[in-house]
Give the backbone structure.
Amino acid sequence: MSVRHGLLAVLAQGPCYGHQLRQEFDRRTGGTWQVNAGQVYQTLDRLERDKLIVRDGEDSEGRELFAITASGRTEVDAWLGASIVRGTRDELAVKVAIAVTLPGIDAASIIAAQRRATAEALAALVEDSDDLGESIVLAAARETGEADLRWLDTVEQLLATAEPYGLSAEQPRRGRPARSHTPS
Amino acid sequence: MSVRHGLLAVLAQGPCYGHQLRQEFDRRTGGTWQVNAGQVYQTLDRLERDKLIVRDGEDSEGRELFAITASGRTEVDAWLGASIVRGTRDELAVKVAIAVTLPGIDAASIIAAQRRATAEALAALVEDSDDLGESIVLAAARETGEADLRWLDTVEQLLATAEPYGLSAEQPRRGRPARSHTPS
DNA sequence: ACAGCCATGTAACTTGTTACATGATTTT
DNA sequence: AAAATCATGTAACAAGTTACATGGCTGT
């Protein structure tokens, strides 16, 4: 919901037209999340459908302006007020967790490749920026990358003392027999 | 694509029926990603549509079995072989980056609330597990949480020396005037 | 003339997700 | 008899994303 909420939040600062919104979003995220132009208008349509924004005439140059509604402001406040709790639905972690449970998979080389990729991405990060938003996003990317490297070390240690996985033993069935109903 | 690929990877280990796949997926992720039952069948339909799996008869108890195809194996290998490069599209980072660029927003209290939530989630993590998959996912959650706390410190330091943001100055228009075309 | 940006939009698609329907079998 | 679990599905939707269409304006 980052694009949706992000665009809405920018609109909380004042009316904008589509292209301007896109630029503001890009700027505030330090150019790290360049949202596709089409997506902006798509998202604006959905925000309008949900009564969080309204079309509010044109500016002096004829560009169509969007303005936030009261519901929209409530939504922005809720977004900013709610903390983001990162679940354990971590794509990378789950991938590795499944990979190591697969037979005939060289888990060690997957870990190694991942470490190389992460280290590379980390090294490729821009040193620093004078833009506040960009600095914040950059700092996050750095911390995340370093955390990933530490985690990969931990995984290797875990693997060193691990036993093979398999499918669970087959259970006798209890449910209904397959294919007994067909919908109308 | 974690569910899709995860289920496919489990099928690479041998034929399964839907409910079994769901249980295997849950088990291998240490119960941290309990996929909805309906989603399993939805995903299986899509995997079948994409010729990555086929329906392959029934087991001795009448449950419908799914088996991976050659294309499916290729896909699994590609998934495991490709490293996941975490982009800078970080929901939390982008939210904070936008929040601090908004006027009239008490960024400090948002940061503080986020720190509390993160610390709480971190403390709530289970100590340890004897399940390999679960240990891996848990370790990732721990590292991520700690990295977030460090990042929040950095953000506070950045905020201490920051200047206010605003909308970019309005540019004279160059594009086409609004609403000059209507689709057929 | 042509490339490139400004500006707005539509169509089509993906994955993830939930709510619901259906019914059998086992346990209480 | 009721509740829980096993088991399979359908319908509907959200959010993100891309490809494409359209056309004006600016600079070379």
Remarks:
- The longest helix of chain B spans residues 132-160.
- Residues 34 and 118 of chain B are 22 Å apart (CA to CA).
- Chain B touches chain A through 92 residues (CB under 8 Å).
